[in-house]
UniProtKB/TrEMBL annotation:
Its cofactor is Mg(2+). This is TRNT1 nucleotidyltransferase. Transmembrane segments: none annotated. The keyword Nucleotidyltransferase applies. One of its GO terms (cellular component) is mitochondrion.
Length: 405
């Protein structure tokens, strides 16, 4: 049996957790850390959020917490068996062990159990199906720890059964594959077969849920391997990707973009050939307005807005920003530079501050230009001169320029 005593594990024992543990111990209810947090701890990472599992029912937990004067946070998890308690400024999400009675590929109806293995059995992947006692003891019914050490991603039990319980698990398989494995292409053939046979089930999953998973896949490892797989296994068409996605361009862009911290949409746009590809993605996945605009921007400008030859390669991008009337153009241009793999220019661009035009209508009035129309025309002329100078001319230079004009 394996016992974990790492500093990351020790660090979890806040005053809040100690109090929670004490309450459960007093009542003889078992309490263990579950799922993703166990996987992270075993990988030597600090878990982002921690889920707990227990043999106590929601009613027993409520009774126990209430009589101890602990505040319960009402979020709608109770019918799934989750109670959230707040102690010492910290929330604890604790879920009763359960078995799925009926599933429709999206939601499950559950009944409670005290059998840890039965609960582990309904989890998606072996690396997510482990429990950790508060004494550091590992409970691992499906060789999740072995798989984690060997960097293998496998479904718990039969892949097709797990997938049919919730079709989103197809994308979760890809996401964890991109997070944990070393090599692309290390899949069990039966798993790929199960994904292919069940891909159509993704049509019934909401766009929002799909987009959450897809974004993580796009920023993970092996992304071009995984997206190719989505096409080979018929997954792509059910999650809003174009049928004729441009996989060559996708390969080209993903080669250099991973280290540049791109937005998911920047990576994804390399699959798209036309504006409609962005619109169709939006119809299926309900992406944000900002994401949609970024996709449209990249499709439109990725070919013709490129660096200049000569001493000022950034100029075309800077001119574009200066001519733009929108507030977030700079951030779109940075995404475009990532897309184009221009790492060096991206660094320069991030250092560049958008200069503000030094002359105002007020300056021109002081010089005796009175009509609004003339002021507008003069400002435009000066702006053009300023632009030609690479935005270097100051107010004095521009105004003396106006005298010549």
């Amino acid at each position: 049996a394996m016992k974990l005593q790492s500093p990351q594990f020790q660090a979890l024992f806040t005053p809040g957790l100690r109090s929670v543990a004490e309450l459960f111990e007093k009542k003889n209810y078992e309490l263990r850390i579950a799922g993703g947090a166990v996987r992270d701890l075993l990988s030597g990472m600090v878990p982002q959020d921690i889920d707990f599992a227990t043999t106590a029912t929601p009613a027993e937990m409520k009774e126990m917490f209430t009589s101890a004067g602990v505040r319960l946070i009402n979020n709608k998890g109770e019918k799934h068996g989750t109670i959230t308690a707040r102690l010492h400024e910290q929330n604890f999400e604790i879920t009763t062990l359960r078995i799925d009675v009926v599933t429709d590929g999206r939601h499950a109806e559950v009944e409670f159990t005290t059998d840890w293995e039965k609960d582990a059995e309904r989890r998606d992947l072996t690396v997510n199906s482990m429990f950790l006692g508060l004494d550091g003891m590992l409970y691992d019914f499906f060789n999740g720890y072995e798989d984690l050490k060997n960097k293998k991603i496998r479904f718990v039990g039969k892949a097709s059964e797990r997938i049919q319980e919730d079709y989103l698990r197809i994308l979760r398989y890809f996401r964890f594959y991109g997070r944990i494995t070393e090599e692309p292409g290390d899949h069990e053939p039966s798993t790929l077969q199960a994904i292919k046979e069940n891909a159509k089930g993704l049509a019934g999953i909401s766009g929002e849920r799909i987009w959450v998973e897809l974004k993580k896949i796009l920023l993970g490892k092996h992304v071009n391997h995984l997206v190719r797989l989505m096409y080979e296994l018929d997954v792509a068409q059910y999650i809003g990707l174009p049928l004729d996605g441009n996989l060559e361009e996708f390969d080209r862009v993903t080669k250099h973009i991973q280290n540049l911290c791109p937005k998911p949409m920047t990576v994804l746009t390399s699959l798209f050939s036309v504006k409609d590809d962005v619109t169709n993605l939006d119809l299926r996945l309900k992406i944000s307005k900002e994401e949609k605009n970024l996709g449209l921007f990249l499709v439109k400008h990725r070919q013709e807005l490129t660096k200049a030859m000569g001493p000022e390669p950034l100029r075309p991008y800077q001119d574009f920003i200066m001519d733009s009337r929108e507030s977030n153009t700079s951030s779109k241009i940075c995404e475009l530079l990532k897309y184009q793999g221009e790492e060096h220019l991206l660094g320069e661009m991030q250092q560049w501050t958008v200069p503000s035009f030094p002359v105002s209508g007020h300056d021109l009035r002081k010089m005796g230009v009175s009509s609004g129309k003339e002021i507008g025309a003069a400002l435009q002329q000066l702006r053009d001169e300023w632009k030609k100078s690479g935005y270097h001319m100051d107010r004095e230079e521009l105004l003396s320029c106006l005298k010549k004009l």
